[in-house]
Amino acid sequence: MSTTATNNKQVSRRRAFSKRDKITLGFFVGIPTALHLALVWIPAIATIGLSFTYWTGIQYSNIRWAGLGNYKNIFFSTPAFYDALQNNVIWLLWFFLIASPLGVLLAYQIDRQIRGHKFYQSAYYMPVVLSLAVTGIIWNFMLRPDGFINGLLGRDIDNAVSFFGNYDINIYVIMVIASWRHIGYIMLLYLAGLKAIDSSLREAAAIDGATEWETFRKIIFPTMKPVNIIIVVITMIESLRAFDIVYIIYGTSAGLPILGILVFQNIAGEGASMKGAAYAVILFVLSIGPIIAYLAQQFKEDVK
Amino acid sequence: MTSQIVVDKKYRNRQKIKDRYISLFIGVFALLWIFPILWTLWSSFRPYSEIRARGTFSVPERFGIFNYQSAISRMELPTYLYNSFIITVPAVFFTLFFGSLIAFVVSRYSFKFNVAMLLLFTAGNLLPGQLVFIPVFKLYLQLGDLVGNRRFLYDSHWGVILIHVAFQMGFATFVLSSYMKTIPKEISESAMVDGASVWRHYWSVILPLLRPPLASLAVLMTTWIYNDFFWALVLMSTDKKRPITSGLGRLTGEFVTDYNLLAAGAMIAAVPTLIVFLVLRRQFVSGLTLGSTKG
Amino acid sequence: MTTPDKLLSRRSVLKGSAAGALGIAAVGGLAACSSDSDGASGGAAVTGPIAFGARTVDEQPTLQLRALVDAYSAKTGNEVTYNATESNAFQNNLSQYLQGTPDDTFQWMAGYRMQFFAEQGLLVDLSDVWAEIGDQYDESYKIASTGLDGKQYFVPQSWYPWGMHFRKSMFADLGLDADSVTTWDEFLSMLDGMKSKGLIGFAAGDKGGWEAMGTFDIINARTNGYQFHVDLLAGREEWTDDRVLQVFKNWEQLLPYMNTNVLDLEWDGATQLLLQKKAGTVLMGSWFAGDFKAQSDEDYFDLSIIPFPEINPEHGRDTIDAPIDGFCVAANGGNNAGGIDLIKFAGDMEGVQAMLDTGVPMTSANRGQDTSTYDAFQKEQLAVMAEAQYITQFLDRDTRPDFAGPVVGPAIQSWFRNPNDVNKILESLQAQWEALPPLS
User: Fold this and answer.
1) Is residue C140 part of a domain?
2) CA dist., res. B136 & res. A41, Å (int)
3) Mutate which: A50, A54, A56, vs C, most C CBs within 10 A
4) pTM score > 0.90 for this model?
5) Residue C49: is the preceding peptide bond cis (ω within 30°)?
6) Is residue B179 in a domain?
């Protein structure tokens, strides 16, 4: 990250803390940590534990040990799981190969301050600012059997193009909607990183006669390595964790199975079982790769 | 030398032409990008009955804010907006406050646990919410029973505020601590030489310098927390207490056939974040220091 | 027309619903919270505030429920807070809702869905209420309201049959006589005729994953009989049985007459097709009639219903899905006594009348509803019910919830996408049934 000389060295000499200071530090650290542990980490561990039990989630007396029962159920007896995995992979690939790169390129162009960049920045980021409930309503409007696109195509409710129901295309429809938000988000993150680049780098490149594309590829992009890693990790996590958009459009029906929906479908509602916890753990394990990569990148300097 | 300048100029002109195409291309897409929002806005001013009768692209006969009036009176939107407000504001405040505390401690002092803390919070931020919600639900009920009021945390705004703070603290900590790295250590050293307590160090010395990242974090957090609908959905049972994003879900079911009315409701729900965004555009990007790469 | 009593008593509602036949016995050692609440009937005066939870936000049913609640408040002076949640959100959250801070009285459904929560100790025993108002209901309703431990936990509100709905005007235009569409062959030739006129013969929507279960239920019951259907849902028969395959083969014959975007429409999309006269028939529960009435009286009076045609003469048209909706009292509510008082009012003719007075069509479970005041459509619903000997509650109420929604729903949806995969789908259904975790 930063290579300014003094940042790693905190206060050089450790002076003795007064009693008052110790108490203050105790609160500073203790309260947030306690809250974070109590509502995030401990429940997460509890859910992991629960994934090895059979339970409907209501009476504690009903908890029964299941061993790997839920996991076996998922891997061997639930075809929907593999459908969901496939959809998540498509989501990942799309974000990785299409949406995120577009966001990055967009950020680069806007950072170069091409004409209209102020408007573009706002326009592309606007979908990110909207809540997913609003996003769902907007796209429902556009793609319903009696919505805008079908109206444009001149189709009526009975022979409308089935954007959400047609299994062959609905994943891509959802990808478009998800990208609508994701591209703006990535653009913003990358912009934040680009602004921190020393302009002298770019000037040097211009003097050397490099084209814009060469400048980007050979100079800017490599320098942005830390931010690149952040983008990669966020892309992976967003595609694995995806839930909100699909829930808004399909509820918990199986219109588009993805891991996030499977978790919710099995952990909430009347048919609740700890199979949902097992799904959540699987989701967690799949995300852990990116999380660790991210953390390793962020903190490798601090660990030194 | 002159040939160099000539070459430069030719290159620059070519680039300028390329740039115009790029700008045009991006511009066209930018319009397409916001088109769905504009279409929804447009539709919100028309009555559904007219669309049904005369088609989606008919020239409007009736055009006005009647859907909005209807939405406000029938959808209880003011209640939902109010709920959103009283959830979002404290949540953002405490997230930033606690995040700054942790970031302060790990950035300005060298304790052995610093890295562990950062890891803990940053990883925690990335965990999916569904991983934790059943235990959190049970915990809230138990604590409620302990205190004698089942609605102490469950079905209460504080319960939702706390879970937001717990999850989002990590991101605030990360951004603030990486910003604090750019504050020269001399400032802290001289404060300590002057005998400032930890509290003074934080409150009077460091905190005032954190305006840029705090501002931009405030803007981001407000958007994220306002837009969440999962937690309010599962941790609240009284519909009237829910924020507008969860409330909209209800309205989608209720007014399933009157899309134009729904569009008005959606626009109303979008207004707070849109205002925050348009007014504070600069803060979105400026204070985020994701990595300074000074060559 | 025979009197309502005679009509209703000819049915036989499965004792304690199909799930009772699942052999789910009450588990010993359960912390039983299903005891009577404090100060039930005949004790101290009941005071408000009482919380009422509605499971719908749709306009027509809300009118009815608000009328009920207002009438109760007017009569007793107790304040009632009305808390409405959209039905999918309500169902998804019910478990949390009941464990946490539920309303005192809330809307729910009969069947295993109710018995399950009663068994978990989350519902209040209403046997005392039934002792008081039970004479207003047919025995079969009491059976449907009974939990697995023999006590009552439910008070019915209304029922509706699942049948073939159509518009009288359209049938007239096509020269069809509803009474002569009674067998499968007659039905298919009717659909042929509709198709040749450019209509969708059999409209359907299954975006929500549950709507098509009604079609499965009825085709299964028609093809293989009530007993097989019940046994299949209870796991005593296998999905890979040839008889289940036959159900899908029969269903496949209907596909050419259906709309192509079944998975893009929910139930209201399918009924819209009928409303807009683009479809000839739709198999649905009659609750949607309120939407027709809201559109115009003319549309409502044009609506009619007949039973799904006979497929197998051995079974005729002896079975029907007729889910019962009603109310329960939540054990964790803040005011159990108030909840019981309100539910008693709701079950009593006084409450029913308040709902009927709103003019929204409702087929009450209560004997007191004067069926002679039923309009033509409601009488037809009664006739459809009268013909049936066996009543089922609908697949997602008659079998395990962790099987119905997550497994059967998607299976049917994938069948719509690829009817040729039927064997694979059935094998998978059976495998997933066998892999279900044991009920504790």
Assistant:
1) yes
2) 10
3) A56
4) no
5) yes
6) yes
Q: Which residues contact A155 (CB under 8 A, 6 or more apart)?
A: A145, A161
Cβ–Cβ contact C120 with A under 8 A: yes
Output the domain CATH number for residue C126: 3.40.190.10
- List of chain A residues whose C-beta atoms are within 8 Å of the C-beta of residue B165: 35
Helix (H), strand (E) at residue A204: helix A199-207
Minimum CA–CA partner of A64 in chain C:
C440
Question: In this structure, are B112 and B11 located in the same domain?
Answer: no
Residues B159 and B195 in one domain: yes
Do C275 and C291 fall within a single domain? yes
Total domains, chain C:
2
Three-state DSSP string of C122-138: CECCCHHHHHHHHHHCC
Nearest CA in chain B to C90: B237
Q: What is the pLDDT of residues A83-95, one digit of tens each?
A: 899 999 999 999 9
User: C235 to chain B, minimum CA–CA distance in Å?
Assistant: 30
pLDDT at B3 over 80: no
Most A CBs within 10 A among B131, B233, B278, B283, hence the mutation to make, goes to B131
What is the average pLDDT across C130-137?
90
Instruction: Decide if A271 and C31 are in contact by the 8 Å CB cutoff.
Output: no
In a shared domain, residues C297 and C400: yes
C309 and C251 in one domain?
yes
Place of tokens 């295309």: A169
Q: Which residues pair with A228 in a beta bridge?
A: none
Specify if B58 maps to a domain. Answer: no
The vertex-C343 CA angle with C338 and C349, nearest 5°, equals 130
| Residue pair B156/B147 in contact by the 8 Å Cβ criterion | no
Residues B30 and B128 in one domain: no
Rg (Cα) of chain B, in Å, rounded? 25
Instruction: Kindly identify which residue of chain C lies nearest to residue A54, measuring between CA atoms.
Output: C437
Distance from the Cα of A107 to chain B's closest Cα (Å) equals 11
Phi, psi of C88 (to 5 degrees): -65, -45
Contact B250 C86 (CB under 8 A): yes
b/e per residue A220-234 (b: at least 16 CB within 10 A): beebbebbbbbbbbb
Helix (H) or strand (E) holding A138: helix A132-143
Asked if residue C5 belongs to a domain, the reply is no
Q: What does DSSP assign to residue A208?
A: T
Residue of higher predicted confidence among B210 and B229: B210
**DSSP helix/strand/coil, C330:** strand
| β-pair partners for C107 | C327
- pLDDT value of residue C204: 93
In total, chain A counts a number of residues equal to 304
Q: Does B239 touch chain C (CB under 8 A)?
A: yes
Main-chain phi, psi angles of C41, to 5 degrees: -50, 140
Alpha carbon of B294: minimum distance to chain A alpha carbons (Å)? 5
Min distance C132 CA to chain A CA atoms (Å): 31
Do residues C431 and C50 lie in contact, with contact meaning Cβ atoms separated by under 8 Å? no
Same domain for C331 and C400?
no
ipTM: 0.83
Residue B253 structural domain: 69-286
Q: Is there a contact between C91 and A164 if contact means CB atoms under 8 Å apart?
A: no
- Contact across the interface for C440 and A165, Cβ inside 8 Å: no
- Residues A235-273 have pLDDT tens digits of 888 888 888 888 878 877 767 889 988 888 888 777 778
Do A123 and C247 contact (CB within 8 A), yes or no?
no
Q: Which of C86, C87, C100 lies nearest to residue B150, judging by beta carbons? A: C100
Q: Is residue B86 located within the same domain as residue B193?
A: yes
Q: Which amino acid is at B159?
A: G
Residue B108 to residue A44, Cβ atoms within 8 A: no
Q: Which domain holds residue C99?
A: 16-23+47-160+323-368
